[in-house]
Design brief:
alpha/beta, 6-stranded mixed β-barrel, about 180 residues, Barwin-like endoglucanases, 6 strands, 5 helices
């Protein structure tokens, strides 16, 4: 990747690109993480596709700084294989009295992409309320809005509204979930 700068030497071009790439691959803990490809594409789009020339060192420095701040705000993606079941908003499967209220008080409605997680995932793996989770093989992103009974370990429950048949068809499956740690 090259940054077009007007009135700068090739060495300065290499230096700016090197700083961006170094920042992109390192976190503050000196660990290597994959480059945030969306961010890289946007920088390449700005610099290469639009053929924008940086008019001075201040603009170049600003771009590098913004890029670095975005990289540092990215967190490590965690993945884990878990047992996945499904549940519905019916009193037989949930809290007595109000089957649409989740453990933290969130109101669930059919069509929402929500999961309940076992408490070990909350405490040991950093999944927390409102964490966005991808489930391999299922479209979209699910949000942690409910927690399961203490007896379950390494398990998620996928919310399926009031469609009991769909939940039964899902059954019990091993799935891989992923989320941004600390999100």
């Amino acid at each position: 990747m090259w940054i077009e700068t007007v009135g700068t030497s090739t060495a300065q071009h290499r230096s700016a690109a090197g700083v961006i790439l170094d920042i992109a691959f390192r976190s503050h803990r000196n660990k290597y993480y994959p480059l945030n490809s969306m961010l890289l594409k946007s920088v390449v789009f700005i610099v290469v596709k639009d053929n924008i020339a940086m008019k001075n060192t201040t603009t170049s420095t600003l771009l590098i700084t913004l890029f670095a701040l975005n990289i540092f705000s990215c967190q490590n993606r965690e993945t884990l294989e878990v047992t996945a079941t499904a549940y519905n908003s019916v009193e037989a499967q949930t809290k007595k009295g109000d089957p649409t209220t989740a453990a933290w008080g969130d109101k669930l409605e059919p069509g929402m992409k929500v999961i309940a997680v076992s408490r070990d995932l909350l405490h040991e793996h950093g999944l927390d309320r409102h964490t966005k989770v991808k489930i391999k093989g299922l479209p979209g992103t699910y949000r942690v809005l409910d927690k399961m009974n203490k007896r379950w370990k390494k398990r998620i429950d996928i919310y399926m509204g009031t469609d009991i048949q769909k939940a039964r068809e899902w059954g019990k499956q091993q799935v891989e979930i992923s989320w941004m740690a600390g999100s």
